[in-house]
Amino acid sequence: MNKFLHFIFESEVPDIGERYRKLASGLVILFIVGYSIGFLQLMHLGPYLGPGLGDDVSFQPLLNSLSELHSQAPAMWYALLSLLSFTVLFRVVAMLGGYFLFEREEGQPYPIKWIVVFFLSNTLSALAIPLVLLALGTLFLLSGLSFDIGWHWVEHNVNVANQFVMTHVPTLVDAPAPVAVFSIAVISGFFHYWFHRLGHTQRFLWLLFHRPHHMTPALIQPTTMAVFTALPLFIFLILPYNLLFGACTKLFSSEPLYTEVIIFNCLILIPEIFGHQTALYQIGRRSRLIRWASFFSSNGVYHYMHHSSEPEHCGQNGTVNLVNIGGGPLFIWDIIFGTYCPLSTKTPRAGLSGQPELHLNPLRLTLAGVAQIGSELLRNPSWREKWRILVSSSAYSPPVSTDFAVKHEGRKHTQPTPTVISYRYSFNAGAAPSANVNAELITEQQS
């Protein structure tokens, strides 16, 4: 049994040759189409709410809104349907461009190995959700309560939050719909900003919840690890998240604003797709329309700066990822709290700080945060250290610690003067080029 566990945790996805490119491209296309259609289930949700963090996550609210609009205002129905169609089509084209233009922008095709590793990691994270719910249901059953409480944990928490908000949160200003949506985005964006920022600065949240989203060394949508499925934390944030953002909504509107929120989400989702596309960074940076739309939505091509692995790109005190955190339109909270960063003329390299070499094992990457926290708690006997492991900043490392995601832990790249550092992707030597791509550090003499 130990040998089997060692094998599945220590082995890595092998090199995958270019002869499998068509198969890999088919997988990417299938994901992109399904992802774009699936996003329609979320269009009615308020700003910054995701699956399980709002009301009904299905196509039904969207269909209901369209049906109601068709009977009351046919012209508006046609306009909204056109906007929805354009948003979905634009996102499909942009995601396809992020993959198929990668070779033109970066010098070689997107590595098939990365597609397999990070796509499987995403899949494992998503599949873990029902396992966590099953475990919760079993715990409730063993405690003498109903299994359904745990199995339907998401629905129960959403209902509790919605009932509390509708009963106890007043509507301060029943504002016109456009003003209400904008106000909700600004106010709720403050909390979104700080939750996201804590996801980087608080080690428990970073390791268990947010670091997987920043692991990918070069971004396309299928290999960008989803935040909301990260293990195991999101399940336990549903109630406070819904209470907080539901309250922000109720303050400015006594009734749901489904149609208005759908329009708002359509507009911000158009530039949003540029935030996770390495090959589209320069296209987005050079397009005035994409830049303006990204700045308005506090996302888009500016969000790609947030994924930079290079401290020189607006790093805060030598760290990365603490820029363009988002939350609220016009980067209002980034500007106020000093984390706004303009676009770099050079495409930043994505990933963890310094692009360390990762263990390319999907299961290991998925469970790396859980394994690290658990290992640290077991191997550090001091109760003071155990407490610090759970509550310290992400910069803290206990006396005994193992990073299960990163190889050569602690290795740092130095930048001697008078040289500058740039990154280049290079293939392993061999007659037939493989897709095993590593980040190779190269120093070039300054001219």
TrEMBL record:
InterPro entries: Fatty_acid_hydroxylase, Sterol_Desaturase_Related. It is found in: Membrane. The keyword Membrane applies. Keywords: Membrane, Transmembrane, Transmembrane helix. Residues 184-339 form the Fatty acid hydroxylase domain. The chain crosses the membrane at residues 23-43, 75-102, 114-142, 175-195, 216-241, 261-281. This is Sterol desaturase family protein. It comes from Zhongshania aquimaris. The lineage of its organism: Bacteria, Pseudomonadati, Pseudomonadota, Gammaproteobacteria, Cellvibrionales.
